[in-house]
Amino acid sequence: MRIGIICAIKNELRYFNTSKNTCQKIGDRTFYNGIYENHELILVQSGLGKVNAAVVSTLLIDKFNCELLLFSGVAGGIDPDMEIGDVIIAESLIQYDYGILINRELKAFRPGSIPIGEPKNELEFSLDTEIKNKIKAVLPQIRMGTILTGDVFLQCEETRIELFEKYGAQAIDMEGGAVAQVAEQYGIPVIVIRSLSDLAAADSQKLSSKYLKKAAENSFNTVQDLLKAL
């Protein structure tokens, strides 16, 4: 299987050891080629945010003919039951910052739908059922849940609490939901793996710097285990 692997930042991609792999540059992004567990891997650092994630996702599918997209990286924690370093695989992804603003409150809609009236489509992008079952079989200890995606680095305790109460999510990132949106349009499954580097609160900047390396490594190790089962 040809699998596209996306990381947002260098500290996440570095564990995949792309230094000896062949590469191709398209626009401002460098794509690396490798082999692992009989899979052909195309690896790329997307950069932060939904637009960057959507660009590389489209290229991985359209130019490199990837059959599956896999995002590996760190995220902020939303669920108070989770700890820094914990790994979460997205069973569902919600772009919480797309929708309509009414009376200073944002009502989320499924990205791409017209944000008028009541939402007519499911809000979340869901993990492929067959892949979900494979993950549960090989990684029964790994938690699955909801990851929120938005173009904001959350560093606010009050907003963290509000988002958990509203969505019951476990983590928040800036790319996963966009990857899922692109993949759905091409009929390609996507897996988003995140390890918590911070708790999305007022001291997130300090915590993220301190725990980023370990969280990125935890996510990478989970990817390695998962590739053996796919």
User: What's the structural domain tally?
Assistant: 1
Return the average pLDDT rounded to an integer.
Answer: 90
CATH class wording: Alpha Beta
The separation of the N and C termini measures: 8 Å
Number of strands: 12
Structural class given helices, strands, pairing? alpha/beta
Strand content: 25-35%
Strand order of the largest sheet: 5-11-10-6-12
Encode the helix/strand succession as letters: EHEEEHEEEEEHEHEHEH
Q: Which CATH architecture is right?
A: 3-Layer(aba) Sandwich
Q: What is the helical fraction, as a range of percent?
A: 25-40%
In angstroms, what is the radius of gyration?
Answer: 17 Å
Number of helices: 6
Largest sheet: 5 strands, mixed, barrel
Textual characterization of the structure:
The termini are close together. The protein is α/β, with parallel strands linked by helices and 230 residues long. The mean pLDDT is 90. The chain has helices at 10-13, 50-62, 129-138, 157-167, 176-186, 204-227; strands spanning 2-7, 23-26, 29-36, 39-45, 68-77, 87-95, 99-102, 105-108, 125-126, 143-149, 171-173, 190-198. 32% of the residues lie in helices and 32% in strands. It has one domain (2-227): Nucleoside phosphorylase domain (Rossmann fold). It is globular, with a radius of gyration of 17 Å. The protein has a five-stranded mixed beta barrel with strand order 5-11-10-6-12. It has a two-stranded antiparallel sheet with strand order 7-8. The protein has six helices and twelve strands. α2 runs parallel beside α5 (176-186).
